[in-house]
Design a protein that fits this description.
The complex is a heterodimer. Chain A is α/β, with parallel strands linked by helices. Chain A has helices spanning about 60-70, 95-105, 115-120, 125-135, 140-155, 160-165, 175-185, 205-220, 230-235, 255-260, 265-270, 310-315, 335-340; strands spanning about 20-30, 35-45, 50-55, 80-85, 90, 110, 190-195, 225-230, 240-245, 250-255, 320-325, 330. In chain A, a hairpin with a 2-residue loop joins strand 1 and strand 2 (about 35-45). Chain B has helices at about 1-30, 35, 45-55, 60-70, 85-120, 125-140, 145-155, 170-200, 205-210, 215-245, 250-255, 260-270, 270-300. Chains A and B meet through helix 2 and helix 4 of A and helix 9 and helix 10 of B. Chain B: Its main location: membrane.
């Protein structure tokens, strides 16, 4: 049973050590209407201290990918049907549930979108924070409470010692999200997956929370996967970007380069849909149409029904991820035209 | 919290007065208790008048009620028509019914919640369907059928238990009647828990608990069950009152001399002081059970605060 030996991933020749390597991940949901293909061959890498932004609309498979990496898919109906998830040199999909559980929360942690519903309403925040130490470290109740106070201080919650026994609903939205972050940081994991961590917050609070997250990431040199649909947030904090559409990666690139010259019409559409102050009063170029149903992903390129540059080839041939530059890839047959146009 | 309890207790006063007055009027207005004492024979008018005067039956109903209430607050529930103090009947009947109700409640809590959790987590699977089917059967078959059936098969045919419970009603003899009494509510507790668990199992905080790397058992008990118990506790609270009063059928079948048994006899024999006395106590039990349920809410859900 212990022959789950996986080759340690050789460190890449340049740069920091690879932390997470997702290869050709497939996830399906069996529903009454049919099989929904939520993730179709996603590959991504995160290095230590690196921030990877995963960008996409609702239903693009970004959250499902995150849940598959964490191992918290709703199973059934969800199921990983293929691929590998290498984390710190181990294939997570080959681990037994008990080993997998010891990784969750301790080596990789997750921050959820809406802290009000993601925190348990009937348990005090001190209890919920302390639970990490009690379960993973076997700490005593008293010790766990002490560590909970320290954590709350670390995420800059005022009067932490007097508030440790309060319940989630007694905190403001921003403070609640800080508690979520504190919970994820509790055991100093190597990787944090933040699923739209600031979507539910006011704009001013968003900035504070993002700043805190970025600070803590630098301090602990963690890998960070930031799932978002907010291009503004991405530009500030991310190193690399992966754009997802209909369960596939359609473009991946270093942030600066992607903003300068997108190599996929979908990415270009997303960038054009950001309102700009210097173009006030003009029609906003939104991406027309709706993302496809995951039960019936169109043949060929999944994006072709909405694509402004689609040609007959796109209806028939699914584009592979073309290497379009150093550390850049695009799943568009006509990426060269796009890059040349810029 | 303290002020809330005081306010709730004060609110109970009109409710208590209203319900007891209704019962009082109904019991004394329907039929003539003095005639009832004499059964088939017509009473001698002089004796009847004397008895009426002794039991205050010659006064207007509202005066009778006030006199009765005044007595109750001194602990005097009056005498049954055979001269036995009602309090004496109570002191033998209530402990028996209390034991029976406790057995039933414990069975409901342990089996109802356990079955509810198991089925709620496996919605649509064979375990779920079969338990659901069983609860349906239990709900649709009346207690007197299940009770008599159990008594006949286990008591008479196989002789595993005594078909009738002895007057002392020790816990051992009350176990099976307790199961019979619990069955209906057990089915409801199972269904309530199942619905609540199944609804909450998709909640975000459950996903968070899993992402924290907590063991399944801890996620289920500490996070999921804790949140799912609120509707179940409400039901159990009101059920305490029902079990105390509604053991009538079960007590009759197994010849248990508890509250239901005494109430039934009181009604059949038009023994008004017994009926009113017992019902008064049951009203208090109901009111207190409801207060305790409301206070338990705040314990289970910190978002509820009483001021």
């Amino acid at each position: 049973m212990t022959q789950t030996q996986t080759q340690p991933v050789p460190p890449s020749p340049s740069g920091p050590e690879r932390l997470l390597e997702v290869r050709d991940l497939h996830v399906e949901f069996r529903t009454r209407e049919g099989v929904a293909k939520a993730v179709n061959g996603v590959s991504l890498d995160v290095a230590e201290g690196e921030t990877l932004a995963v960008l996409g609309e609702s239903g693009s498979g970004k959250s499902v990918t995150a849940q598959a990496v964490m191992g918290i898919l709703d199973t059934p109906p969800g199921r990983v049907t293929g691929g590998r998830i290498l984390f710190e040199g181990r294939d997570l999909l080959a681990l037994r549930e008990e080993e997998r559980r010891s990784v969750r929360g301790a080596r990789m942690a997750m921050i959820f979108q809406d802290a009000l519903s993601a925190l348990n309403p009937v348990l005090s925040v001190g209890y919920q924070l302390g639970e990490m130490f009690r379960v993973h470290r076997g700490s005593s109740r008293k010790e766990a409470r002490e560590r909970a106070v320290e954590l709350m201080e670390r995420v800059r919650i005022p009067a932490a010692r007097t508030r440790v026994d309060d319940y989630p609903h007694q905190f403001s939205g921003g403070m609640r999200q800080r508690i979520m972050i504190a919970m994820a940081l509790a055991l100093e994991p190597r990787l944090i997956i933040a699923d739209e961590p600031t979507t539910a917050l006011d704009v001013t609070v968003q900035a504070q929370v993002m700043e805190l997250l970025a600070d803590l990431q630098r301090e602990f040199r963690m890998g960070l996967i930031l799932i978002t649909h907010d291009l503004g947030v991405v530009a500030d904090v991310a190193d690399e970007i992966v754009v997802m559409y209909a369960g596939r990666v359609v473009e991946s690139a270093p942030v600066r380069e992607l903003y300068r010259a997108p190599a996929h019409p979908y990415t270009k559409g997303l960038l054009d849909s950001i309102p700009r102050l210097d173009q006030k009063g003009q029609q906003l170029d939104a991406v027309k149409g709706l993302p496809p149903s995951l039960l019936r992903i169109p043949p060929g390129c999944g994006f072709h029904p909405r694509c402004p540059v689609a040609r007959p080839l796109c209806h028939a041939d699914e584009p592979p991820l073309y290497e379009v530059g150093r550390g850049r890839a695009s799943a568009c047959h006509f990426w060269e035209e796009l890059l040349d146009a810029e | 919290m303290g002020r809330y309890v005081v306010r709730r207790l004060l609110q109970m006063v009109p409710v208590f007065a209203g319900t007891t007055f209704l019962i009082f009027v109904m019991v004394y207005a329907v039929g003539d208790p003095v005639n009832a004492m004499f059964g088939e024979r017509a009473p001698d008018p002089a004796t009847a008048a004397q008895l009426r005067a002794e039991f205050n039956l010659d006064k207007p109903v509202w005066q009778q009620y006030l006199l009765y209430m005044a007595d109750i607050f001194t602990g005097d529930f009056g005498n049954a028509f055979n001269g036995q103090p009602v309090t004496q009947l109570m002191s033998t009947a209530f402990p028996v019914t209390l034991r029976l109700a406790l057995i039933a409640i414990v069975i409901e809590i342990i089996f109802g919640i356990a079955l509810g959790v198991v089925t709620g987590l496996r919605r649509g699977r064979p375990v779920d369907s079969s338990v659901l089917m069983m609860t349906l059967i239990v709900i649709s078959v009346p207690t007197f059928v299940t009770g008599t059936l159990v008594q006949y098969v286990l008591g008479v045919k196989w002789g595993w238990i005594a078909p009738a419970v002895s007057p002392a009603a020790p816990v051992g003899e009350l176990l099976l009647p307790g199961v019979v009494l619990a069955l209906l509510s057990l089915a409801y507790v199972t269904r309530l828990t199942r619905a609540s668990i199944s609804e909450n199992s998709r909640a975000d905080y459950v996903r968070t608990a899993l992402a924290k790397g907590l063991p399944r058992s801890r996620v289920t008990v500490r996070h999921l069950l804790r949140n799912s118990l609120i509707p179940v506790v409400t039901f159990l609270g009101t059920d305490v009152g029902n079990l105390m009063a509604g053991a009538l059928v079960t007590e009759r079948i197994f010849n248990i001399q508890g509250v239901g048994f005494q109430l039934w006899q009181g009604i059949v024999r038009q023994n008004s002081p017994t009926v009113v006395g017992f019902v008064t106590i049951l009203v208090i039990v109901f009111l207190l059970a409801n207060l305790i349920v409301d206070l338990l809410y705040a314990v289970l859900d910190p978002r509820i605060r009483y001021a």
